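ASSEMBLY PREDICTION REQUEST
Request ID: AP-0331
Submitted by: J.K., bench scientist
Number of chains: two
Total residues: 528
Priority: normal
Notes: Please return the full assembly, not individual chains.
Input sequences:
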Amino acid sequence: MTALLEVRGLTVGYGGAPVLRDVDLDVPAGSIVALVGANGAGKTTLLRTLSALVPATHGTVRLAGRDLAAVSVEDRVRSGLAHVPEGRGVVAELTVDENLRLGGLWRGADRREAIAEVYALFEPLARRRNHAGHQLSGGERQMLALGRALVARPTVLLLDEPSLGLAPRVVAQIMGVLRGLADRTGLTVLLAEQNVVGALSVADHGVVLGLGEVVASRPAHELAADERLRHAYLGF
Amino acid sequence: MDRLVFLLGTGLARGAVLALFALALVLIWRGARVINFAQGAMAVVSTYVAFEVTALTGSYWLGLLAALVSGGVLGFAVERGVMRFASPRSPLSGVILAIGLVMVLQSALGIAFGPDYRPMRVPFDDSAVLVGGVPLLSPYDLFVLVTAVVVMVVLAVLFRWTSLGLQMRAAAFAPEVSRLLGVRVSRTVTLGWVLSSVVGSLAALLLVPTSLGLNPHATDSLFVLGFTVAVVGGLDSPVGALVGGVVVGVAMSLVTGYLGAGLVPIAVLGLLVLVLLLRPAGLFAAAAARHA
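STATUS: Completed
Returned structure:
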């Protein structure tokens, strides 16, 4: 299957110290790829580099065949690359409705329709549409961050640690929504997670990062079953 | 009673100007997390532009227009040419640059125009109108009030109901997240400086003609009072600037009328200390975030 998001030889460093080394990664259209690994493995840095928040030292990133080297953070979003950062990134001072409007600022007339779809997908948000972001629970904030990214109707969604600090029931709900979207709408997701079991349970493919390098890239069910990898890199 | 009504009216007009100036400080603080100590000096440059244009054309309104345009241009130039180079790692960096800018601008004005106070004309009569024998607002006070209210309504509409305003608010509160949503934060910050500088220029132009007149330091006290208002209201809050302006303006007027003008600085300082003791983040500071 052709990769919608294609990463080749990506190397990133902070102040000379390499954080990612020669990373290759393919995210096929309509699939969920789980990016797993221990804390400090480089998952967040990889996602931040893909959305251009962190500059790459070497390597290429292609979205639907287009080289993104000269494309700014803001224009990558317009190209279809949505990034939900770690810590959810809800604008706490804005209401739920304003956060969602922000997600589709540069979209045309279909913005209202996209927002209505998000409210249908996450009913708690519909009930709290006039509440400020800081009044929401952790789970509601995660729904809002995810919903806001969906309003932009992205071709690829980069999702960083969506389960962080959430109750297992909420995590299961969010993972279920992601799987449903990928199946129903063909949404492509790169999901960085420390919750390895949860991530691999909904993913088609898994990539294990260890100290900034790809140490395994296989179908998700194979990774989950590989006892040696699980013990060495995934901690379960 | 007549005296109280008169003092409340004039206090309201003075408070509206303070609120406008405080709003200019709040706009910058929200957009760039910098207290613009150069706001007063920038505003006095625009007021000189208004003075010169009015002197050349004989039209107050052309002078007003020139002040607003020059305020916007100066705001753009200061953000792109100076403040953009402030280190984001040091909160003092922007403050020191702003203070340096005050010295540069006021020295340049002093060299160009000298230290003398120049009287400025107002477009309407500034003596109080008697209604039923009670002295109320002057036509100029009314003009100041209406202007301030119109500017505040326009800004409220801009920030609350337009896409641009939403982007500016988001960029101010969460710049990185906003970039990830496609907001061009660099542009919204510049626009914030332009808007702030225009509003600050307007406040100075409304106030200077009713004070001693125009000189390079004519807005020094306006800055101190506007800063007090912004802190009393809560630096993040435009509504706080509005309410703080009215509270400080009316308090100043009442203290002047009943206790004497000499006590005004002490009263304002006392109010500032009281608010900082009771609500350190200001009267209209944002509510604390819920812990998930």
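REVIEWER COMMENTS: The beta strands of chain A are 3-14, 17-28, 32-36, 58-63, 66-67, 81-84, 156-160, 188-193, 205-210, 213-219.
SIGN-OFF: pending second reviewer
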